[in-house]
Write a structure and sequence with these properties.
This protein is α+β, with helices and mostly antiparallel strands. It has eight helices and seven strands, in the order H-H-E-E-E-H-E-H-H-E-H-E-E-H-H. A hairpin with a 3-residue loop joins strand 6 and strand 7.
Amino acid sequence: MTDYSNLASSIDPASDTVRIMREELVTISHRAYQRGLVVGISGNNSVRIPNTDAVLIKATGANQGDMDTTDTVLIGLDGNVLEEGKQESKEIRWHLALYQQNPAIGGIVHVHPPYATAWAVANRTPPLIHTAARGLMGEIGLVNLAPSGSQELADLITEAFSEQEVLVALMREHGIIAVGPDLRTAYYWAEYLEDTAKVALLAAQVQALEPNGGVRLASHEASEEASG
C-alpha cells in the first residue's frame, strides 16, 4: 500500500501552486452552478495538486455558486486534512479512492445535472446518440445506490472506474461523476454527459410524434376548413 503521508505533509497550503489550484476549483464550481448542473450545497469537485499527493476539495456546506477560495480544503491522499479549522466534503472517501486507483486523474467533478440524474434515477445510462458523445466519452458507468460518504459507495465507484477508458458515471438516484487529467477537462466530460442525456430524451420524444410533428397550427385548421 502506498504511503502518502510524507509527501502530503510537506505541502505548503499558502504556496502559489496551491493558490492557483484553489482559484481553478472555485472557477469550475461557479461554472457548474451557473450552468444549472448543481443546486443548493450539493455536489463536490476536487483537484489534485500537480506532482504531489494532495488534493483540494470543496468544504462541507459550501454552495458551488458563491464559494470562494476559503471554501476549499487541502487534504492528503492518506485522508489527513492539511489545514486547521476546515471540514472537507463528506464524499472525500471516494474522491481519494479514485486518485489512489488512477494516478492519471487530476480532477473530479461531482454534480447533479437534471437530465443525467433523471437517467440515474431510472437506473439506466443514456445512449450515445450523437457523434460528439460517441467520439469523446466512450462507455458510461453506472454506480448502484449506497449511503453518501460510505466505504460501500467508494468501493462501487472505484469499481465503475476500474477501466481507465471510463470517464463518466451515473450514481443511482444521486448524480454524476466525471474524471479527467485536470479539473477543467473533467468538467467538460460532465457537460457532454448532461448534453447527451438531454438529447437522448428529446430525441425519444420527437420520434414518438405524429408525422406532422404533433403540432396543429392555425394554418392547418384554416386549410381543413377551406377543403371541407
